TrEMBL record:
<dbReference type="InterPro" id="IPR036812">
    <property type="entry name" value="NAD(P)_OxRdtase_dom_sf"/>
</dbReference>
<keyword id="KW-0560">Oxidoreductase</keyword>
<dbReference type="InterPro" id="IPR050523">
    <property type="entry name" value="AKR_Detox_Biosynth"/>
</dbReference>
<dbReference type="InterPro" id="IPR023210">
    <property type="entry name" value="NADP_OxRdtase_dom"/>
</dbReference>
<protein>
    <submittedName>
        <fullName>Aldo, keto reductase family enzyme</fullName>
    </submittedName>
</protein>
<dbReference type="Pfam" id="PF00248">
    <property type="entry name" value="Aldo_ket_red"/>
</dbReference>
<dbReference type="GO" id="GO:0016491">
    <property type="term" value="F:oxidoreductase activity"/>
</dbReference>
<dbReference type="GO" id="GO:0005829">
    <property type="term" value="C:cytosol"/>
</dbReference>
<dbReference type="InterPro" id="IPR020471">
    <property type="entry name" value="AKR"/>
</dbReference>
<feature type="domain" description="NADP-dependent oxidoreductase">
    <location>
        <begin position="15"/>
        <end position="309"/>
    </location>
</feature>
Length: 316
């Protein structure tokens, strides 16, 4: 598959990357094994996946540290690292969001050290702090870009008004927001804006935390300490509707001798408004399986069928 270019930069990458919040993200998921995390990253690089998407917040530096270890021995020019910051840990251990220019510069310095690398291909402002004017936060990242410490300026978790403020000087290269076939709000206003301003889009939760892989059934229930227990997608009539929709993707999967997750990922890969898809994984086998999506070329009819199947009015 041809590589994609990020925003207005010369950063290029494969359109299927790896989400690494389950690599060292002990604050997000129970029972993670750091050695498995390292294997997940190496499996991705060995399978030709080149974009590694991480953040300070995944394990408060642990994901970045494990990636720093995993990439030893790999040619740095052959893969891209995207990380995020804006979380400041206070003296008493609380986490506060700080997207001030000075703190973002500190975040980049610290991420470079944990990742054992000289530059970041993308640095995202993970969250806005609600105080710092976003164009000033982006201007600080532009200084780091000019200095060669980062190659592309990213933003995440912004409303449309915040995105416009951040991109006031047309410096934003890439936007990472929640988007998947179950949550398609970005299509109305965000996608046209990003297209017009040459900003790449990365959807997070592409597999809806596993719901779009076809492994759940209407009878599946989740224990109260599982985050899916209270997630509306995994509850009631909405959950049953989604499970039925996903079952219908199985017919297309069979035609391609593929898995449902691979077909869903292939749909994003064919979507012109999506730049890089970054499914997460808990095991190297999931990475290996998801990488196969790059080999699947959905026909225009199949693409339209999936588009219709998950049209927003069917999921009120
Ligand atoms: N910018 C932000 O604020 C933000 C927020 C959230 C996430 N992210 C990024 O987006 C990435 C993707 O999000 P995500 O990982 O939370 O969710 P996701 O990609 O929607 O789902 C990933 C999960 O689905 C399951 N899975 C993956 N491949 C599978 C396969 N082939 N078969 C069956 N199950 C499979 C695994 O969980 P189980 O095995 O437990 O089912 C995996 O952890 C993250 O890793 C992170 O890098 C960014």
């Amino acid at each position: 598959m041809t590589s994609v270019k990020i925003g207005k930069t010369n950063v290029t990458t494969q359109p299927l990357g790896l989400g690494t919040n389950a690599v060292g993200g002990h604050n997000l998921f129970p029972n993670l094994d750091d050695q498995v995390g390292i294997k997940i990253v190496r499996q991705a690089l060995d399978d030709g996946i080149t974009m590694l998407d991480t953040a300070f917040a995944y394990g408060m530096g642990q994901s970045e540290k494990l990636i720093g270890q995993a990439i030893q021995g790999y040619d740095r020019s052959k893969f891209q690292i995207a990380t995020k910051g804006a979380q400041r840990v206070t003296a008493n251990g609380d986490v506060v969001i700080d997207s001030s220019p000075a703190f973002l510069k500190q975040c980049v310095t610290d991420s470079l050290e944990r990742l054992q690398t000289d530059y970041l291909d993308i640095f995202y402002i993970h969250f806005p702090d609600g105080k710092t004017p976003l164009n000033e936060a982006v201007a600080a990242l532009n200084e780091l870009k000019q200095a060669g410490k980062i190659r592309a300026i990213g933003v995440s978790n912004l409303s449309m008004d915040q995105l416009r403020e951040a991109n006031q000087d047309n410096l934003v290269d890439i936007d990472e927001e929640q988007y998947n076939l179950l949550h398609r709000d970005a299509e109305a206003e965000r996608f046209p804006y990003l297209r017009e301003h040459q900003i790449s889009f990365v959807p997070f939760f592409p597999l809806a935390s596993g719901l779009l892989t076809g492994k759940y059934h209407a009878e599946t229930s989740f224990p109260s300490d599982d985050i899916r227990h209270d997630n509306p997608d995994f509850n009631g009539e909405r959950f049953t509707t989604i499970v039925n929709q996903v079952e219908q993707v199985e017919q297309i999967a069979r035609q391609h001798h593929a898995k449902v997750a691979q077909i869903i990922l292939a749909w994003y890969l064919k979507n012109p408004d999506i730049s890089v898809v970054i499914p997460g994984a808990k095991h190297p086998a999931q990475v290996q399986s998801n990488a196969q999506a790059l080999q699947i070329d959905l026909s225009a009819a199949e693409y339209a069928e999936i588009d219709q199947l998950f049209s927003p009015e069917k999921l009120q």
